[in-house]
Design a protein that fits this description.
mainly beta; elongated
Length: 111
């Protein structure tokens, strides 16, 4: 399996899997930390080395691996409209939802 160069990790945030690369920003589910705080995510599913020759895959997580990141901002996702209808019953229901998110700057991947 040939990967592109550079170290990266795949982390789990809620029900989503996100690729984390040092120096890049990622958007995850809302973290309880304040803006400017550092968070450590230990739910790491995969870690790849610098040249891609060594790949650690967890079962289900990689033991001892962690991703250190800094909270840049708390924001909200796009509005999702939920529309329910039962035909011929005169029943409709419209509901909206916006997910709470946090933007993180990945600083380091410890494996």
């Amino acid at each position: 399996m040939q990967m592109e160069g550079g170290i990266f990790a795949v982390i789990r945030s809620g029900a989503k899997q996100i690729k984390a690369v040092p120096g890049e920003k990622i958007v995850v589910d809302r973290q309880s930390a304040k803006v400017g705080d550092e968070v450590v995510i230990s739910d790491v599913l995969l870690v790849s080395s610098n040249d891609g020759s060594e790949v650690k895959i967890g079962a289900p997580t990689v033991s001892g691996a962690a991703v250190k990141a800094k909270v840049i901002a708390h924001l909200r996702g796009p509005k999702i409209e939920v529309f329910k209808k039962r035909r011929r019953q005169g029943y409709t229901k419209k509901q909206g939802h916006r997910q709470d998110l946090s933007e993180l700057l990945v600083q380091e991947i410890a494996s």
